[in-house]
Amino acid sequence: MGFSTRISTICIFFTLCSNTIVFSNRASAGVFFSFTQCIRNALVRTEENSELLLTENTQARNNYLNAISNLHANTSGPDSLTTIRRAYEAQTQYCETYNQLTKRSHRGYEVVPVLEKYIGEDVAKSIESRQLAVRDPQLAQQPIKYLTTQEAENFQAHESEGKLVLKKGHRLKNLFAVEYIMDTKGEIYILDRRSVGFNDAPGSRGLRHSSITGGQPVASAGTISTDSDGNIVRISRDSGHYHPGKTQLKQFLSRLKSIRVNLSKAKIDWSETYR
Q1: pLDDT tens digit string along 202-235?
Q2: CB within 8 A of 249, min separation 6: which ones?
Q3: Which uninterrupted H or E stretch holds 235?
Q4: Cα distances (angstroms) measured from residue 202 to each of 31, 120, 146, 215
Q5: Are 219 and 109 in contact (CB under 8 A)?
Q6: Helix axes 26-73 and 80-105, enclosed angle (nearest 10)
Q7: Are residues 166 and 156 in contact, defined by beta-carbon separation less than 8 angstroms?
Q8: Is-above-0.85 flag for pTM?
Q9: For residue 37, which of 5, 2, 10 has the smallest C-alpha distance?
Q10: Which helix (DSSP H) or strand (DSSP E) does residue 189 occupy?
Q11: d(CA 84, CA 125)
Q12: C-alpha torsion angle, residues 98, 129, 177, 230 (rounded to 10)
């Protein structure tokens, strides 16, 4: 049931009540009608606030995409740091409004943005690339690989017999601290390069947590380890790119349970050991 529908249903309910309840005196009737009007006004204000949040959310996303487009178009310009700042501020606002809408609707996941210093890493012009250039100029010129939608699908995981397997049926066995991410829709990706047969492109620094979503916000990120039978034995929220909180790890665990992944052997690492 949508938010507007819930408002209408509640208002109709109180209207019916006002037509059927017989009040002992005018004071009682006045209290009831005042209470009804307060609820109606509060619901309308809440709906208006939600519409405003949605508008702000859309605008923030557009501002982020515009900043990224400008960064790619002028990667060596003197204003690139300013553009990175604008992109980060826009993405942060996007996450804040998105999370508020999520809480109000009681649907979806709370998301986190990629850290500011990694914005522009796919064109080797991030703050992190500048820092790396001090000790290794050649490596700093190599971008982080951002996957296309088709490439990312190879790393998408689903449940089979209580275990996670990749889209093409590859079983995730003997993994040690391999990166995972969960996107805003709850889709899970495991960066098991070996199973997919993925080789880093020449001149690229390879894959990171941000590679799947192209630096977009995520609902969870960390590392996962499995035994020789494919059972999950450890899950963490270790992601230097996103610094997810306990909320994001809880969301990931809840998602795994909802698709019937067996976590009986899993050790959950709640610590903040971001690398």
Answers
A1: 667 889 999 999 999 999 999 999 999 999 999 9
A2: 220, 222, 235, 236, 237, 268, 270
A3: strand 232-236
A4: 74, 19, 14, 21
A5: yes
A6: 150
A7: yes
A8: no
A9: 10
A10: strand 188-190
A11: 9
A12: 70
